[in-house]
Amino acid sequence: MDSRILQVLLFGLFISGLNASSLVLNQELSTLFDELWRLDSNRMTPGLDYNISVQGRAGFVSQGSQIAIDRASRPFFNNVNEIKMGNVTTISRLLKLLDNYERSTGVAERVTAEEQREVSLFLDAVMETEVMKRAHRYLVSKGQSSSNLRHFKSQLHLIWFHLYHRQRNTGPDSCGFEHVFVGEIKFNNEITGFHNWIQFYVQEKARLLDYKGYKARQHDLPDEDDHVVSLQFSWHSVLKPVGSAFIGTSPEFEMALFTVVFLMNTERSTTVLVNIDQCQMELLVVRHGRSLGTAYPKLLSSNSRHFRQHSQ
Predict the structure, then answer these.
(1) How far apart are CA 142 and CA 32, in angstroms?
(2) Which residues lie across from 286 on neighbouring strands?
(3) Could you give phi then psi for residue 64, rounded to 5 degrees?
(4) Active site residue: 179, 212, 215, 227, which one?
(5) Model-level pTM?
(6) Using CA atoms, how far apart are residues 145 and 139, in angstroms rounded to an integer?
(7) Res 303: pLDDT
(8) What are the CA-CA distances from residue 189 to residues 31, 84, 161, 181 (Å)?
(9) Is pLDDT at 233 greater than 70 in this prediction?
């Protein structure tokens, strides 16, 4: 064989090997996030505070298509304890933020003084939780955050609420919080972001969102107490073929996880493999300069399924 051809083949195998390499479990972050899970006293309990109905497996949707077979005749959420939601300060203050944003990218955001106050009060509530206090101590120990609480609040604001351009033909039209917790629609035909269960429940209850079915690996069926679920749904008649979200977790838990991943890495796109309460998942974070572009979880295996597989 020609030596040049052999070199090309070997280089191709090397590159393919790099692409096929799997992530290594981040044990340090797994330990931290497992602690945050235990500290999350504001988390909703499946079967007690909410019930979901995963129903059928959603089908494949070609890129750009708005047509999907509905595999779920009933809503995803059967019920949610709204009294508890109202009594959890971080959730009640989150709910006030959900209508502060323009749904369409390319439309400049106009932030009122009242909306600024709502954001400030939400961050105050988040920082008062044991979950965010523990995340803050970790970041301080790593030299990624100031111990000064006012400075840390400004850092959280920059990461999550600083407005920037997603489309450059207008004023600042997006921020990390809007993208992750609220969701956006691009060019009137593509849902981007929208990775929060509370917004999902609010929009589904208002009949603005239609759940189409779950997405999972072949032969895998989500449990109703899974911490992360991948879903197919339409929102304002625009289809999202697949989107992942934590279910039942508090806003501070999700913000703490993604803030830590954001600050502990400098790459534009970062994926970490972690175990949280017997769930193995990937956490993906994409930067937009000094702010958050997007962040979401991807469940790999859940509860006893993961540990049963590895004990055999």
Answers:
(1) 13
(2) 269, 294
(3) 85, -10
(4) 179
(5) 0.89
(6) 5
(7) 60
(8) 40, 35, 25, 19
(9) yes
Active site residue 186: no
Query: Considering 136, 212, 240, 288, which one is annotated as catalytic?
Result: 240
Between CA 161 and CA 119 the distance in angstroms is: 8
Q: How far is CA 223 from CA 10, 254, 297, in A?
A: 44, 20, 16
The pLDDT score that the predictor gives to residue 211 is: 98
Question: 262 has which bridge partners?
Answer: none
Q: Whats the size of the chain, residue-wise?
A: 312
Residue 90 belongs to what H/E stretch? helix 89-95
Tell me, what's the pLDDT at 11?
39
User: Per-residue pLDDT averaged across 217-221, rounded?
Assistant: 79
Based on the residue annotation, tell me whether 136 is a catalytic residue of this protein: no
- Tell me the longest C-alpha to C-alpha distance in the chain: 74
179 in active site: yes
Considering the candidates 136, 195, 212, 227, report the single residue annotated as catalytic.
195
Q: Could you identify the residue written with the tokens 């509530």? A: 125
Question: Is the distance from CB of 237 to CB of 67 less than 8 angstroms?
Answer: no
Distance CA 39, CA 98 (A): 25
Task: Give the closest residue to 175 by CA, choosing from 193, 186, 160, 156.
Answer: 160
> By the 8 A CB rule, do 119 and 157 touch?
yes
The CA distance from 222 to 52, in Å, is 11
